[in-house]
Amino acid sequence: MNTTILASTLLLTLLLAVGLFFFIRASVKDRIQQVKLASPETEESLLNQLKQYFDQRAYQVAAVDAATNQVTFQGIVRPSWFLAIFLTVLAACGIVCLSLVLSILFPTLTKVFLGLVALAPAAGLFYWKKAERLEQVSLKLESASTQAAGEQSLVIVTGHRDELIQLQQSLKLKPLL
User: Fold this and answer.
1) Side by side, which strands form the sheet with 150-160?
2) How far apart are CA 159 and CA 151, in angstroms?
3) Measuring CA to CA, how many Å separate 93 from each of 88, 103, 104, 107?
4) Pairing of strands 133-146, 32-39
5) Could you tell me the maximum CA-CA distance found in the chain, to the nearest angstrom?
6) What is the pTM of this model?
7) pLDDT tier, 84 (very low <50, low <70, confident <90, very high otherwise)
8) Closest CA relative to residue 31, chosen from 131, 174, 125
9) ∠ at Cα 149 (145, 150), nearest 5°?
10) What DSSP string runs through 47-75?
11) Mapped to the 3 state alphabet, what secondary structure does 94-129 carry?
12) Facing residues of 74 across strands?
């Protein structure tokens, strides 16, 4: 077999392995964002809806600052079985690909390289241990009046990106640009 083809295949496989490594690492990364959302509800009504929403999501009130009209909720984020299994399967596929390329280069070590697939569950275990964490969502309520929309409530939410998306969809809040 041509050594140029083997070298380029090995290089591409190593690049894919590096990408997979960073993908697995990024699965547990905090993605904290701040977003401004508008609602036609009054501040009191919106605050009640937000409290009810976070109660349903197993968050508890951690702090209330009446002076700045800010509430902080906190809750435990549980890891996802699906994502743990998915990361394990991805790691197994990546290790098999790397093992096949290495076994072409070093045929006497084929069994050793294929045995590395036993390391694949480490990816799911890494995710499982790191993904469960205490998460906080901070809300600040303001009232805003615009000529086009009239009187409306504005909530500034700081929290995990996925939680903000879910909040926005559940309560039909519109983002302000």
Assistant:
1) 60-65, 70-77, 133-146, 150-160, 32-39, 174-175
2) 26
3) 9, 15, 17, 20
4) unpaired
5) 76
6) 0.74
7) very high
8) 131
9) 45
10) HHHHHHHHHHTT-EEEEEETTTTEEEEEE
11) HHHHHHHHHHHHCHHHHHHHHHHHHHCHHHHHHHHH
12) 60, 136
Tokens of 35: 């977003």
Q: What token pair was written down for 169?
A: 């969809």
Q: Which position has the token pair 């002076």? A: 67
Distance separating alpha carbons of residues 71 and 90, to the nearest angstrom? 40
Nearest Cα to 176, choosing from 63, 23, 61, 39? 39
89: amino acid identity, one letter? V
What pairs with residue 153 in β-bridges?
39, 143
Going by pLDDT thresholds of 50, 70 and 90, the confidence category of residue 130 is very high
Share of the chain above pLDDT 90, in %: 44
